[in-house]
């Protein structure tokens, strides 16, 4: 049984990439106390000089939704306590949250694209590669 003073974050990874472009998340199962900081790593490879990176979140029994996006024109993104900065010299777009909560339990996807379409219907990009991290949280800090 898990301690009531810890949240358990379980991260499962699935890789998909095409055209030589890809993203890579190097995470495994971790346990952190609720309220602790957490970073989900995302690095990418592309021949595009102006890539677009995205973080999507999918909560239990819900459709995936855009959480953050970054590009050379807008490198830093923040939303609902999450933040990510596109660092082209490192080819990275790491997702960070300073205080993880049980309500953050979800599946997190990092995606890469060379084109951004209009936001009609929620379609934000044409993915060239993506990776998924599933974050499960159990227990609460009291």
Task: Give an overview in words.
- The protein is mainly beta and 142 residues long.
- It has a domain at 22-112: Immunoglobulin-like.
- It has no helices and 13 strands.
- The strands form 4 sheets. Strands 2-13-12-7-8 form a 5-stranded antiparallel beta sheet, with no helix packed on it.
Q: How far apart are the first and last residues' alpha carbons, in Å?
A: 17 Å
Number of strands: 13
Please identify the structural class as seen in this structure: mainly beta
The CATH architecture of the domain at 22-112 comes to Sandwich
- What is the average per-residue confidence, as pLDDT, rounded to a whole number? 74
CATH superfamily of the domain at 22-112: Immunoglobulins
Helical proportion, percent range: under 10%
Query: What's the level 1 CATH class of the domain at 22-112?
Result: Mainly Beta
**Main sheet specs:** 5 strands, antiparallel
Short characterization:
Residues 123-134 have a biased composition (Basic and acidic residues). The protein has 142 residues and is an all-beta fold.
What's the SSE blueprint?
Blueprint: E1 7-9, E2 13-17, E3 22-24, E4 30-32, E5 38-40, E6 43-45, E7 52-58, E8 65-70, E9 76-79, E10 82-85, E11 95-97, E12 106-113, E13 129-135
Antiparallel strand pairs: 1-4, 2-13, 3-6, 5-11, 7-8, 7-12, 9-10, 10-11, 12-13
Keywords: Adaptive immunity, Immunity, Immunoglobulin domain, Receptor, Signal, T cell receptor
Protein name: Ig-like domain-containing protein
Domain Ig-like: 21-136
């Amino acid at each position: 049984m898990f301690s009531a003073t810890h949240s358990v974050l379980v991260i499962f990874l699935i890789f998909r990439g095409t055209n030589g472009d890809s993203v890579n998340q190097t995470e495994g199962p971790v346990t952190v106390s609720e309220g602790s900081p957490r970073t989900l790593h995302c690095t990418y490879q592309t021949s595009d000089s102006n890539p677009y990176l995205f973080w999507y979140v999918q909560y239990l029994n819900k459709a995936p939704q855009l959480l953050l996006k970054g590009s050379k024109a807008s490198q830093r993104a923040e939303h609902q306590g999450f933040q990510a900065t596109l660092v082209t010299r490192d080819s990275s777009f790491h997702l960070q949250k300073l205080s993880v909560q049980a309500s953050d339990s979800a599946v997190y996807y990092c995606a890469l694209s060379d084109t951004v379409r209009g936001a009609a219907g929620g379609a934000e990009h044409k993915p060239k590669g993506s990776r998924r991290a599933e974050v499960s949280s159990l227990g609460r800090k009291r």
